[in-house]
Amino acid sequence: MLQAVIFDLDGTVLDNEGVWEEVFRKVANSHALEYGNKWIHEPGIGIEPNWRKLISDEKKVRELSFQTWKMYWDQQNGQLNVRDGLVELVEEIKDRGWQTALATGSNWNIVENELEQLSLYLAFDVTTTGEEVLTQKPDPEIYQLTAQKMGLDPQECVVVEDSLAGVQAAVDAGMVVVGIVSSYATREELKKAGAKVQVDNLDVDMIEFLAHGDTQTIETGQAD
Predict the structure, then answer these.
(1) What's the CATH number where 111 sits?
(2) 63 plus 101 within the same structural domain
(3) Hey, which of 13, 118, 151, 152 would disulfide with 156, CB 3.0 to 4.6 Å?
(4) Are 181 and 88 contained in the same domain?
(5) Are residues 59 and 126 in the same domain?
(6) Does one domain contain both 39 and 144?
(7) Could you give the C-alpha distances from 205 to 5, 70, 131, 214, in angstroms and in order?
(8) Of 102, 103, 104, residue with least CA distance to 20
(9) What pLDDT is stored for residue 218 in this prediction?
(10) How many other β-carbons are positioned within 10 Å of the β-carbon of residue 140?
């Protein structure tokens, strides 16, 4: 029986993957790094792992990661956007008596500021950040730890994710996953990664699926 819904942060709670992409490109351009015409960052895996795909010098990785965090925060400070439907969905989940949690590879200093700005401190009963795990997504550790914090078995949790790495992490943790379709993750890619259902937007209609696994009730998405 479902007892909790766990949300990713970037791209799921926050509609900000485009901002991250812009920041990565600006930092890369400032260092004359070649990255081609494809997406420069892969959502869900963390800042440093993304830079390691382009460079091998660990000192440089840390330098670029710091610049990325700083540029992101300077650009987003006071202009954060919550994904449409998130607040209403969380309210409905809480009305059902289920727990809510946040599981993100971001560091707590960033997450704390974002939750404070958006008045979302009370939205989540549990928050797990990147500093608490040894390995980032797609490793399942962050979702396993989040379930443990809530005193639940993985089978009692549903995860809402936008990244392929996050979907894989949650599936490997033994959880049912709702995947959000985006430019980074198509419906077919989410399905292949293991998302039980793929949605275009967050909506309270998701509640019936979360409660009963009735995918026909989700008008905005498709079941696998």
Answers:
(1) 3.40.50.1000
(2) no
(3) 152
(4) yes
(5) no
(6) no
(7) 14, 37, 34, 10
(8) 104
(9) 46
(10) 20
Distances in Å between the Cα of 134 and the Cα atoms of 59, 138, 142 are 20, 12, 9
The reply to whether 52 and 102 lie within a common domain is no
pTM above 0.85, yes or no: yes
Q: How far does CA 153 lie from the centroid of its chain?
A: 20
86-118: per-residue pLDDT in tens?
999 999 999 999 999 999 998 888 888 888 888
pLDDT tens, position by position, 138-152:
999 999 999 999 999
Tell me if residue 182 falls in helix, strand or coil. coil
> Which of 76, 94, 123 delimits the end of a domain?
76
Amino acid in position 119: S
**First vs last Cα of the chain: how many Å apart?**
21
| Mean pLDDT of the residues in the chain | 89
Q: Domain range holding 57?
A: 17-76
| DSSP per position, 115-167 | HHHTT-GGG-SEEE-GGG-SS-TTSTHHHHHHHHHHT--GGGEEEEESSHHHH
Is residue 24 domain-shared with residue 9, that is, in the same domain? no
d(CA 17, CA 106): 13
Do 67 and 159 lie in one domain? The reply is no
Give the separation between CA 189 and CA 187, rounded to whole angstroms.
6
